[in-house]
User: Which sequence fits this backbone?
């Protein structure tokens, strides 16, 4: 193998690692990060100052450390420091910013970092940069006299990175991260702390970028701030778009294509005139055009992101090589939200599989009986049979028991929420009785949807108190409210469109800390078996709403009505204690409307408290015994529909609205 | 004290150029709503077009005209050939953002291909600085400030008193509503990009003069400062952009008196990050106006 080819291969392999880093941030989490190469640079610098001898440069030059440590320690330090800096940068940039502002913020962070490193010479010798970094095993050649042992190190690093990321990508952690990319509002509604999930993905990507930086520094044995303009990051984006966003293998192909293929082809273009930069210029114009072309003709890239396959893990699969055993779980238990499941996962999987095969297919006609599970059932014979002490995250947490005596599930007292001068909710108070099906009506602009947002934690009231089972929840973030077992639907169904219907179901089931990174990494087999029960139940629920045959389709491909049905199936999978339905009838045809009614009644039969905003009054009258009326941000009446019809205020509120509309 | 006033003087010049570069971006973002990464390249294209005319003996005004024309053409074409075809497919905002990055790569490197990477400079008459009150400014500085003020007034008149301005505000408010009331949204957007490019191209010329040399990364190097001013004033608010440019321009030049001048851009970037975190809708917006936008959208 010639030195030339070895060089090309090494370049391609190192940039593949870097591209995999960006794929975690952009491909999985949908973070439009322009700072990636800054973390590559940090990795490169840290590797350099760890492995180089102490600086003997005359001032103002110089660099810190200079420890002469070995390659491996340099790499570890690079990964750790890049991860730490990612944590800091991500903690700042990921704070509730719009996607494009996030990108601009990361660009600003990159440029500030470049400016500081370039100007403050004692750190990494400023714009002069560092050189002479040791390359391990460079003296011996695996492919004859041309060297190439370093290539083997890089390949090993790439393979390990690939395997780790593949494992994580398929784990509940990966699924959660991808849900945030698809629709982070829906993720929050189903108990995910979106900020934390995004931050984790950002840090993970930063660690991999740091690894890539260390490999790069040891390969080119020199590094300075000119080597990491934002353009370098854009080239990695080009690689990901071309290879296939979200597909690790595609991303590696893309990295080779952009960083090796295009580079080598354009190298042979003769220099134009006396313009020494013409080759570079043509290369970047070509890459710009390639980005446009791929986004136009094949936005999913050469190898599209793979859909998750729904299959049950074989019994005993948990006993795999890397299924880290009791001791690791015990060590980690204090930090995880939920104690590890005591039940034998293998036996459970077998039982679940048996149950599935034994069960006759439910005929669509009788499929109406969507089996919602009451909170008590859920905790007693929950999806994974967890009977240990339920953490705060469990839907049937301690507060549930203490609240049983109280007949009121939800209490709203004097809640106010103003947007500028508009007081959308203006001192509203009402109660929802446990186990009831309560309606919430009012003319447009009455503040119903704002109220739903306030209760579910998507917005915080300016003043007032909201209590759920005796616990104050006003001001709590949406994911925390959802974890208490208070779930909601949206006016237009929000599904994770790019993920399969089955993934949507699995994401909706109580997660109980299963999407921790370490679990995905170390106990993949156990997670799969533990998830079997969720899958079995998800199939039942999907069958009940007639969506079973679509379980492996991306949820985004479903029709509007099917999305609505999926939403109900997901709520059922979540085993909530209280559900807020925001106009479940919106955009639903009359046939489906009937079905919706049955599904809502099924919820109530399973002891789930339901508060439903609805404009369709006959529908409401058929279902709800108790109805609350809001107008101009206040609750003006409540009672049965018959009582309300006789109530002068209610009639005025509606008719007044109509008269106003006529004018 | 004297130094501080000198800094204010330089700050006003910087702010004038920055305002000319920022207002068109904000104008575009109020209507077409695209976070445009190629905005810097509009400036670069203007600066190089002015250079070509200047090389062939063109004076300040002819060069300025060429800059405006080149910026306008580049912006118009980028929208017509790239953004509008994609926009008809209703992609995510980020895809359009990424397309402008691709456009930036293409435009910047086409300029590199034709003009090379070496620094170029205009051949314009130099003048000794005048002492005006406490400030020390050249005639060119004064001209820059005067032109910036004149163009800002022109933008104001355009937005406030013309039929186009009215249509533009309508499209900015709701594209669909504007369409059903008979306004040609795409036409308004096309014209907006043209105006965007014309002003930005001219700003590029002034930027080229003030920085002394031209390079293909002239505009891109300035992009984040522009974004800082735009975000500070509230993205999509042309009047806020003027104020944002004034704040950023003064902050950069005054800070250069107290910390190494190489950090003065970092000051702008720092202000950008701070504004995005604390007041993402700009310093003139109510702090919590958008808090609940996410949940109901």
Assistant:
């Amino acid at each position: 193998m010639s030195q030339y080819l070895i060089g090309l291969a090494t370049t391609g392999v190192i940039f593949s690692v870097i591209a995999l880093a960006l794929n975690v941030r952009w491909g999985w989490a949908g973070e439009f990060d322009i700072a990636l190469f800054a973390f590559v640079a940090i990795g490169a610098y840290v590797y350099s100052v760890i492995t180089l001898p102490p600086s003997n440069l005359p001032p103002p030059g110089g660099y810190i450390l200079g420890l002469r440590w070995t390659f491996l320690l340099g790499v570890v330090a690079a990964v750790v420091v890049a991860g730490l800096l990612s944590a800091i940068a991500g903690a700042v940039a990921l704070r509730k910013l719009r996607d494009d502002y996030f990108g601009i913020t990361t660009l600003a962070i990159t440029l500030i970092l470049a400016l500081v490193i370039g100007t403050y010479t004692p750190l990494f010798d400023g714009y002069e940069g560092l050189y002479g970094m040791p390359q391990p095993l460079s003296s011996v050649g695996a492919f004859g006299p041309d060297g190439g042992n370093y290539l083997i190190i890089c390949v090993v690093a790439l393979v390990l990175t690939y395997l780790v990321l593949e494992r994580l990508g398929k784990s509940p952690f990966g699924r959660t991260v991808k849900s945030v990319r698809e629709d982070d509002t829906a993720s929050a509604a189903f108990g995910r702390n979106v900020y934390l999930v995004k931050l984790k993905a950002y840090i993970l990507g930063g660690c991999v970028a740091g690894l890539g930086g260390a490999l790069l520094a040891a390969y080119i044995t020199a590094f300075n701030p000119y080597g990491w303009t934002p353009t370098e990051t854009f080239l990695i984006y080009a690689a990901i778009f071309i290879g296939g966003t979200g597909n690790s293998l595609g991303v590696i192909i893309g990295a080779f294509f952009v960083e090796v293929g295009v580079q080598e082809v354009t190298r042979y273009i003769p220099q134009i005139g006396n313009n020494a930069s013409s080759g570079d210029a043509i290369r970047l114009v070509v890459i710009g055009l390639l980005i446009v072309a791929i986004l136009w003709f094949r936005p999913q890239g050469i190898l599209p992101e793979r859909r998750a396959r729904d299959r049950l893990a074989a019994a005993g699969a948990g006993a795999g090589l890397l299924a880290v055993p009791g001791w690791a779980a015990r060590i980690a238990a204090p930090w995880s939200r939920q104690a590890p499941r005591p039940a034998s996962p293998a036996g459970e999987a077998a039982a679940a599989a048996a149950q599935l095969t034994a069960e006759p297919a439910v005929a669509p006609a009788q499929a109406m009986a969507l089996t919602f599970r009451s909170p008590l059932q859920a905790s007693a014979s929950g999806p994974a049979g967890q009977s240990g002490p339920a953490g705060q995250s469990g839907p049937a947490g301690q507060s549930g028991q203490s609240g049983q005596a109280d007949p009121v599930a939800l209490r709203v007292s004097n809640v106010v929420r103003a947007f500028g001068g508009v007081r959308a909710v203006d001192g509203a108070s009402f109660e929802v009785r446990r186990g009831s099906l309560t309606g919430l009506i009012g003319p447009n602009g009455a503040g119903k949807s704002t109220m739903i947002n306030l209760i579910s934690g998507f917005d915080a009231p300016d003043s007032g108190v909201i209590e759920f089972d005796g616990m104050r929840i006003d001001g709590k973030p949406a994911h925390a409210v959802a974890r208490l077992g208070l779930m909601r639907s949206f006016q237009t169904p929000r599904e994770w469109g790019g993920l399969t219907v089955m993934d949507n179901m699995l994401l909706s089931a109580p997660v109980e800390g299963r999407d921790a990174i370490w679990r995905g990494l170390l106990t993949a087999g156990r997670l799969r078996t533990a998830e079997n029960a969720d899958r079995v139940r998800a199939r039942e629920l999907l069958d009940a709403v007639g969506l079973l045959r679509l379980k492996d389709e991306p949820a985004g491909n479903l029709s509007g009505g099917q999305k609505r049905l999926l939403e109900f199936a997901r709520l059922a999978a979540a085993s909530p204690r209280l559900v807020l339905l925001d106009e479940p009838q919106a955009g639903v045809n009359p046939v489906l409307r009937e079905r919706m009614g049955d599904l809502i009644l099924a919820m109530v039969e399973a002891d789930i408290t339901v508060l439903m905003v609805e404009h369709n009054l006959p529908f409401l009258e058929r279902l709800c015994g108790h109805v609350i009326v809001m107008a101009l941000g206040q609750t003006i009446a409540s009672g049965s529909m018959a009582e309300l019809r006789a109530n002068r205020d209610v009639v005025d509120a509606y008719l007044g609205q109509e008269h106003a509309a006529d004018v | 004290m004297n130094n501080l006033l000198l800094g204010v003087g330089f700050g006003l010049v910087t702010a004038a150029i920055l305002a000319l570069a920022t207002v068109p971006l904000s104008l575009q973002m109020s209507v077409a709503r695209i976070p445009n990464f190629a905005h810097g390249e509009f400036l670069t294209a203007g600066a190089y077009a002015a250079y070509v005319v200047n090389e062939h003996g063109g004076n300040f005004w002819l060069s300025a005209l060429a800059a405006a024309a080149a910026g306008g053409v580049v912006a118009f074409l980028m929208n017509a050939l790239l953004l509008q075809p994609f926009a008809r497919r209703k992609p995510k905002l980020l895809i359009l953002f990424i397309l402008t990055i691709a456009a930036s790569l293409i435009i910047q490197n086409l300029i590199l291909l034709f003009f090379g990477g070496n620094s170029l400079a205009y051949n314009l008459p130099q003048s000794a600085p005048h002492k005006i009150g406490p400030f020390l400014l050249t005639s060119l500085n004064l001209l820059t400030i005067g032109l910036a003020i004149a163009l800002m007034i022109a933008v104001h008149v355009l937005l406030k008193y013309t039929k186009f301005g009215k249509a533009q505000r309508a499209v900015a408010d709701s594209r669909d509503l504007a369409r059903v009331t008979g306004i040609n949204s795409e036409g308004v957007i096309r014209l907006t990009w043209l105006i965007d490019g014309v002003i930005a191209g001219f700003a590029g010329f002034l930027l080229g003069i003030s920085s002394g040399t031209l390079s293909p990364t002239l505009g891109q190097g300035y992009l984040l400062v522009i974004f800082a001013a735009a975000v500070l004033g509230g993205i999509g608010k042309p009047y806020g952009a003027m104020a944002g440019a004034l704040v950023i321009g003064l902050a950069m030049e005054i800070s250069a008196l107290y910390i190494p001048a190489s950090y003065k851009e970092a000051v702008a970037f720092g202000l950008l990050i701070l504004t995005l975190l604390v007041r993402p809708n700009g310093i003139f917006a109510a702090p919590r106006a958008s808090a609940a936008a996410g949940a109901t959208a």
